[in-house]
Write a structure and sequence with these properties.
By secondary structure, the chain is α/β, with parallel strands linked by helices. The protein is built from 7 helices and 11 strands. The chain has a 7-stranded mixed sheet with strand order 3-2-1-4-5-11-10. A 4-stranded antiparallel sheet has the order 6-7-8-9, with no helix packed on it. 33% of the residues are buried. InterPro entries: Methyltransf_25, SAM-dependent_MTases_sf.
């Protein structure tokens, strides 16, 4: 069992459309460039591969990519774009599901590690990444820094987008680190559709401790895929942990 929300057929069907900005070259290309540099000749493994937004262009660079995805409907959308022999996907959760072989790169993007809503599962995710890495391989995550600095006393919600088409805000429980992203989208017919997803937020220092428990060492932390310096004002981070060359086999 996993604590993650399971994305259903309706959510999967509209995912690429509502995430269109994330497919834009100015957003996607720096991520693919960053991951390709770390992967070298590969192979690479993506946790929560979704519909293949990152994996497909990474594979187009000649890097063999495998994916793990919890939602069968999301994986079905990916399969419409690329055949299994070019980009295999295993259905399962990223905390415990394994695939054959070792990888030079394991990665999880766009806050997806937060879909695991318990600390134990998130720790297991780091260990699962380490289990799949060859010595010297890297585990990469892209993750928001929790926006709790923006809370005045008594407030529990922070907006992240307010436009005429979409209003999105996160609500946080700062005792349990549980949070929910709320989305109100205006459709072409003028109606409004509500959707939400639950997540557990993680601080960068907490990520580092999880990595240490998995036998990984922090190699790099930047604010974004373009490599901007990570500072106390950064709202996101891309972090890279390395499996030591002399690491014992992960069990």
């Amino acid at each position: 069992m996993t604590s993650s929300d399971l994305w259903d057929e309706d959510t999967a069907e509209g995912y690429d459309d509502i995430s269109a900005e994330r497919f834009a070259p100015r957003v996607l290309d720096p991520a693919v460039d960053f991951l390709a540099r770390l992967a070298g000749s590969g192979p690479a493994l993506e946790f929560a591969i979704g519909t293949g937004r990152v994996a497909i262009p990474l594979a187009a660079r000649g890097i063999p990519v495998t994916g793990i995805e919890l939602s069968q409907p999301m994986a079905d959308r990916l399969r419409r774009k690329v055949p299994a022999e070019r980009l295999p996907v295993v259905i399962g959760d990223m905390a415990t599901t394994t695939v054959p072989g070792q990888f030079s790169l394991v990665y999880v993007v766009w806050n997806s590690i937060g879909n695991l809503r318990t600390q134990d599962e998130q720790v297991q995710c780091f260990r699962n990444a380490a289990r799949h890495l060859s010595p010297g391989g890297r585990f990469v995550i892209e993750l928001e820094v929790p926006a709790v600095r923006r809370f005045p006393p008594g407030q529990s919600a922070v907006p992240f987008e307010v436009t005429d088409r979409h209003v999105g805000f996160d609500t946080y429980d700062m005792v349990t680190q549980q949070a929910t992203s709320h989305h109100y989208r205006r459709l072409d017919d003028g109606s409004v559709r509500y959707g939400y997803c639950n997540f557990r937020y993680i601080w960068p220092a907490e990520c580092d401790l999880m990595a240490r428990l998995a036998g990984l060492v922090l190699e790099q932390r930047v604010a974004d895929w373009a490599g901007a310096p990570f500072t106390s004002d950064s709202e996101s981070h891309v972090s890279v942990w390395r499996k030591p060359l002399d690491a014992a086999a992960q069990g």
